[in-house]
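For reproducibility, we list the full input for the iron/sulfur cluster complex.
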Amino acid sequence: MLASHDHDILPVLGPPSRPGVWSRLDGLIPASPDTDTSPVSGRDGGPASSWTRSQGRGCARPASEGSLDESPSRLEGFDEVVMTMADGDCAARMLAWYRSGHRALPWRAPLGQAADPYRVWLSEIMLQQTTVAAVIPYFERFTTAWPTVEALARADLDTVLRAWAGLGYYARARNLYACAQEVAGRLGGRFPENEAALRALPGIGVYTAAAIAAIAFGQSATVVDGNVERVVARLFAVTEPLPAAKSRLRALAETLTPRHDCGDFAQAMMDLGATVCVPRRPRCLVCPLAGVCKAAAEGLADALPKRTVKAERPTRRGIVYWLEDAHGAVLLRRRAEKGLLGGMVEVPSTEWIRDESPDCIFLADQAPLPAAWQPLPGVVRHTFTHFHLELTLVAARIPDPGRITGADGFWVPATQLAEHALPSVMRKVIQHALAERAKTKG
Ligand code: SF4
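The corresponding predicted structure, in tokenized form, follows.
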């Protein structure tokens, strides 16, 4: 079954057999009245150092951006293809396709209406490293609880972290909160409109700044994530492997960015990568770019982009100290602000070290206090972006918790553990410990 937008896109036509016929589909796509295919500022001698904004739904961009002259080495070998794409053909195709039935997502504004920068920003932060399906319920909850950036800034950090729990990468949640405070405070509730000012805010990097600038403010920013890299690699048949090809793919993507309707174009590219130009078995027969795609013409689509083989993920190991007081309350502590899971609450543990031996060395000197530690059966496993983690647990009970205060930790009744902003790995630890403790008590 075709995706919702497929019914209205190009007729099913096989990829052309040679570059000379790439443009044969011209005229089959309804031209958008809003689409301006004229060269971007900087190519046509626009102001050299100022931002410009064109009329209507046009986009502003720094006059120095987008010029092929700026990065000849990054585009070497692609000049002929760039000439084909840079005339706005790709943008026209993408905009027509997007307007024929794009994905309805809760953070998107209806066609022709301005997007809410707060909702665009929130969704883009949530979508980093996470799928659209996983983000939707979180986005709905956040915008119900905090409908504006001011409301989010007024919230308690722990409440925000708890609402974030399960989305992973808690540093993002902390940056989200810091950013909300800065926008609501210093910036008077208004997000900046250009990429450079957006990038100065906590948690906003190159990709997110470009996405907000394009979608929320109509800036002619080039939005390049993994999906867009894949589309561009195929469109131009870039055989250089990632990640080395990143800068070349970005330079090529910049040549496609239109001067008008930049938000719709950026979202069209995202949708194409997510629903049509997918990693395996791209659906070239229903792709709006089939007529101009070099990889499809050369039968390379499924093989691109190439990737340098990654080194295997290492395994780190550690010991978790499950400490109960006489009433069954459990000792938790807050991790250091900097680093992995920064500022999150955890069950105390040793450092997580790379250890090739099957059993982790028991590091008594890292225990929160001396006690009759007993091993609990089993191992808790979790995988982070850069390593696998294996945690073994030891447990003890002490009658007098008086020595544990402040920075050392705090006691939480077992029934209230879920109320704290715990990362997924610590939720696994708690589940495992409670199950094992129940066995010994039973
Ligand atoms: Fe090219 Fe096929 Fe991807 Fe479309 S889906 S951009 S035709 S590889």
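The chain has a mean pLDDT of 79. Strands lie at 51-53, 60-62, 315-324, 330-334, 345-346, 353-354, 374-383, 388-397, 410-412. Both points were considered when choosing residues for closer inspection.
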